[in-house]
Amino acid sequence: MTFDSGVLYAALVVESAVCGMLFKRSVVRVLPFFCIYILWSLASDITGALVLWKFSGLLAGRLYGRYYFTQAIIDSVLQFAVLGELAWSVLRPVRSSLPSGSRIVLYGLVAAAGLVTWPFATFGAQQYQPGLSATLFHLQETFSILRVICFLVMACFSQLLSIGWRDRELQVATGLGLYSIASLLVTILQAHQPFGPQYHFLDQILSVSYVGTMTYWVVSFATKEQERKEFSPQMQQLLVLMNVGARSSRIALGDLPPEPSRKRIK
């Protein structure tokens, strides 16, 4: 057994363990897109392993290349859904008081952050010729940066958001963020490395960090989640001001009549 195959089998084992813990702890009720994402990761890794095992040589490389492109696109869509879901889940204590359409606004903010990040996600783009490969790589790096931003925002503002390391949202964001940091570092180092043993060694380090992320989630989800606390008074006041500001903007734009005129409508 080679080191690469050993890491692959370890990844399949810990991915299966994470799936088991997600359903055991009923995380699917709180973070359904994240659960789908983990199930998809397990299924895609199994499929990729079967392709490499059943076929060999140039045919295996071509088939795996086509499969990888499809898998990467679906993976990016699921990551977008997970990031929006994390933002929405963090607001759980005050969701009932938020205006309708708030969830769509959150996903819009994630998309806007992706558009802003896109020009900066070019760490290893020089390794690829212009075309689908370069665009796909660019997309993956953009989501890596978004995952890091999500983790840093939730960690830095955890006191205002009243979340701790035993909250599922922060546990998920921590795993995504730490793996993304490792991915970005490996990409930066590989951009200055020729293809060869050292280049592949960096890929192996990234694979090990992926197994470590899954292991972290297994340990985290094995512990019972603490009850979600109410937001801090400062955060509640900020949300109230944002809600009032949004309402004022809608009135100014004519989308929502002010209270006196609404009472006259029959």
Q: What distinguishing features does this structure have?
A:
266 residues, mainly alpha, Rhopdopsin 7-helix transmembrane proteins, 2 domains, 0% strand, disordered C terminus
Tell me the helix content. over 70%
What radius of gyration results from the CA coordinates? 22 Å
Strand tally, please?
A: 0
Report the end-to-end length measured between terminal Cα atoms: 77 Å
Low-pLDDT regions: 258-266
Strand fraction: under 5%
Q: From the helix content, strand content and strand pairing, which structural class follows? A: mainly alpha
Number of folding domains?
Answer: 2
The first-level CATH class name of the largest domain: Mainly Alpha
What report would you give on this structure?
The chain is mainly alpha-helical and 266 residues long. The protein folds into 2 domains: 3-231, Rhopdopsin 7-helix transmembrane proteins (Up-down Bundle); 232-266, no CATH class. 75% of the residues lie in helices and 0% in strands. The protein contains 10 helices and no strands. The chain has helices spanning 3-24, 32-54, 57-90, 102-117, 132-156, 158-161, 168-190, 197-222, 233-253, 259-264. The longest helix has 34 residues, at 57-90. The protein is globular, with a radius of gyration of 22 Å. The N and C termini lie far apart (77 Å).
